[in-house]
# Entry
Amino acid sequence: MESPAVLAIVTLMFATNTGIAQTLNQGNMAPVVGDVLSEYQAPYIAPGPAGANQTWDFSTLITGTVVTKNYMTAASTGYSTFFSNANLAADHGQGIFVFYWVNNNSLEFVGIYFADASFARPYQNPVKVMTYPCSFNTTWTDNFSSNYTFSGTAVMRTGTITGAADGFGTVVMPYGPVTNVLRVRVEETYTDVHNYGYSVNSSTTHHFYKPGITSGPILSILEDTMNQNSNPQTHRSSLWRTTAPAGILERNADAIGIDLFPNPATDQLSIVFGSVGGSTRLELLDATGRLVRSEHFAAMPMGINRVDLDVNEIPAGTYVVRIIAANGDQGAKRLVVQ
# Structure
């Protein structure tokens, strides 16, 4: 199981590691059943500039009302019949359930259910809130629509969402710095038409994601405007995690960016990481933190390296791939073996 023949070091791929470390995909970003996300709903803070190698200082964020999301299967909510194209749901509390479709290519919002009012708003054409893979300069545009009835009134909603990964770098949070963060700006505009007229709504949200920290961004900064009957009202706020993203899956101190392809994996896995060269150790740990495999190799100097790993004989489950450089720098990424 620990033979050096398992690892194959292939050629140097790029001259530098700029941008590669922040790639988001389903395996390292999308929420999964069982995830719990607790966030402070706090006052607005300016999102800062776009661009490469930024340091965004949000250390002055203050706490606020705690919002908790519990992720579960769509079927377990009891309301999945309204959202036949959903495979994941989030319980926001107070009888509010948000439904999603998650796959290798995208995370899509397919509707919301308000249990207290017995009201469902399904999206016949879902909203693509994230495209995969997503890295610096990735963009996407998607049209969406929803026809629903509220208090006996038919409503037709049509809109467009545009996303752009416009920056990467370090985010300084109240609990300390978080490295290897990708910022994604999402702009959304939609119109609701009903018997009493129409309203035009627009929003801009800046999400800050750390690959490997699933269930949502570490920080979202929101600004939305509703214009009904020529009476615009703007709301601005922020949402940030109540605790630092910590634990075995990713550490704030990670200095080495890692990407895994494919993830989930079945037989062969490619590990792409930034390197300063020299003796490097690759470790595979199981969900309890037990070391399953350890290999040493000489990494290519100053650039992006790739290692191919045979996982065909590894039992199905959740693992962590960890790279440790000669200078002590580390990086870790969650891996799912099927």
